[in-house]
Amino acid sequence: MSLIDRDIINCRALVIDSNPTSRSILSGQLRDFGVGTVVQCNRAQDARRHLEVREFDVVLCEQYFDDGKVSGQDLLDDLRKSQLLPYSTVFVMVTGEATYSRVAEAAESALDSYLLKPHTASSLAERLRQARHRKRVLRTIFEAIEQQDFDQAARLCMQRFASRSEYWLFAARIGAELLLRLGKHDAAKRLYEAVTAERAVPWAKLGIARAEIDEGNLPRATRTLESLICEQPSYADAYDVMGRVQVEQGNLMEALETYRSASDLTPNSIARLQKCGMLAFYVGDREMAAKLLERAALIGIKSKTFDFQSLVLLAFTRFQQRDTKGLQRCVDDLAGALERVPESTRLQRFAAIARVLNLMLARQVGQVVAELKTMAKSVREPHFDVEAACNLLALVAQLTAAELNLPDADSWVETLALRFCTSKGVSELLASASLAHAPHSDLVRQCHARITTLAEQSLNHSLNGDPRAAVKSLLVHAGKTNNTKLMDMAKRVLARHAGTIADAASLAEMADTMLQRFGASTGVPPLGRAGVRDSGGLSLRTDATTVAAPAAALPSVSAEPVEA
Question: In this predicted model, which residue has the larger pLDDT, 520 or 66?
């Protein structure tokens, strides 16, 4: 058989199939096409590890595996969310499922191609030829992205869309995603709407909802998502984004049901198992949380898509169950992760939480109190974030419920709540983290009300004609609490009344300094490192050094590859 293209001899391919006969046939066909190196593996888990540490030009992946634990779709979904597939990689899903919904799901996620079985060598060659041709046609866009020139990449995409040049629809999707990442929400929404007017593709309607969320219009986004889910009930990404909206609105129980729907559609997705398990923990369903988080750890602990926050919450459930061995496993796994990335502040916090729970179960009360006091010293530090606050609140509540006398507990809870109660969604997460001791959960909600009252009292100065007094009051309260909501409000008042405030520049500098110190540590924390913000998004891989990876990324390959 003739070569697919002149560069194919330099390519590296990965074939993932649990059936040795099928795997051998696919590998042989690739070699006949001229592919220089072919690597084989029989499990999705092994393939994930290969892809975490090596790049491949072509990936042929079976949709369903004999063990039934993880599907090719699950693998692709996790790779996409963790940005492990470069633009140059052609990913082809091989499936015997000919129904529209399954084929569309594979094509939608892969953005390259799918191959229905039984197939001929010529049909596979044609799929690969078309996919590689598209990569070449859009090369300038991909190169601009890899060089982090996102404005140029977006312009090239919009030009291709406007002229309806070859692969204009694919370019439109990339361009809209870039516009969202650049904060140009209106432009992204217009592009998504233009695509929807021409083609009724689910990702475009989902993009409209994501743009509406970034604009702060959650009610409109909710209506868009409800319509999309009604039209496409098996579109898992739509549930992810709906869950994100519900979390930000503080509707945690509704969000849990929504995330469960997404997880049910993709039962072996590590990211969705963790997201659902974490939220189950926060709403107080520790049994469900333990089940989901344990499964996520079982199938994904060695994957880059695994978030070790899952082990922290799992440690809490083991402590509550008095499961000494289970808790010790969490301690050991976190200690092992920290050994690999010893500089990770995030992992240091995780390991400390699990260690304290273990000490408490062993009745080492003196050491527990000493470690808690050490943790409490960092609650005002700029790097202490919402996730750390949730974990510390959960720890203090759990230990207080276990009848440990902590005289400073209320003070710690109050300090954390006054700093991080910046929205209804965040406040509900903080209160839910404290559920083990109801008075602490109540105190968090009281602090949320106090921040709201302080903001209203400060803004009354502006309503009464003295915007400078409003800004000063907001900044004073912000300085005492480190609450970024108050800092943001001060900035907004300054922007509106800058012309009437004589020292507006110095006040703005004060607000900016506060936000630079504390602004990155607030907001609804991601439920799993895949993130809430990126739900439903197209993964835009840039240079490997700039991609935000989990602090505890542990790349490994469990078996040597079989190479031609």
Answer: 66
Half-sphere exposure for 376 (CA within 13 Å, toward CB):
19
Q: Are 194 and 161 in contact (CB under 8 A)?
A: yes
- Euclidean distance between CA atoms 48 and 300, whole angstroms: 10
Q: How far apart, in whole angstroms, are the C-alpha atoms of residue 355 and residue 352? A: 5
* pLDDT tens, residue by residue, 264-281: 988 878 888 999 999 999
Helix/strand/coil for 273? helix
Q: What are phi and psi of 409, to 5 degrees?
A: -60, -45
As a whole number of angstroms, the distance between CA 375 and CA 473 comes to 30
Rounded average pLDDT over 336-340: 94
pLDDT at residue 539 in the model:
59
**What is the rounded CA–CA span in Å between residue 515 and residue 513?**
5
pTM of the model: 0.77
Q: Pick 464 or 300 by higher pLDDT.
A: 464
Rounded Cα gap, residues 208 and 220, in angstroms: 10
Helix axes 467-481, 438-463, angle to 10 degrees: 160
* The pair of three-digit structure tokens given for residue 157, joined into one six-digit string: 């995409």
Query: What mean pLDDT do residues 100-116 have?
Result: 57
For 299, which DSSP code?
H
Question: What are the structure tokens assigned to 353, written together?
Answer: 């939480």
Q: What are the backbone dihedrals phi and psi of residue 379, each rounded to the nearest 5 degrees, phi first?
A: -70, -20
Average pLDDT score over residue span 285-291: 94
Helical H segments across 84-217, by residue range: 100-110, 121-137, 139-146, 150-163, 168-181, 185-198, 202-214
* CB-CB contact of 484 with 471 (8 Å): no
Amino acid letter, 240: D
Please provide the DSSP assignment of 51-92 as one string. HHH---SEEEEESS-TT-SS-HHHHHHHHHHTT-S-TT-EEE
Q: How many CB atoms lie within 10 A of CB 153?
A: 27
Query: In angstroms, what CA-CA distances link 423 with 73, 315, 448, 487?
Result: 35, 28, 8, 13
Instruction: Tally Cβ neighbours within 10 Å of residue 264.
Output: 12
365: its two tokens: 């009360």
Q: What span, in angstroms and rounded, lies between the C-alpha atoms of 86 and 57? A: 9
- 181-203 mean pLDDT: 92
How far is residue 260's CA from residue 166's CA, in Å, rounded to a whole number?
Answer: 39
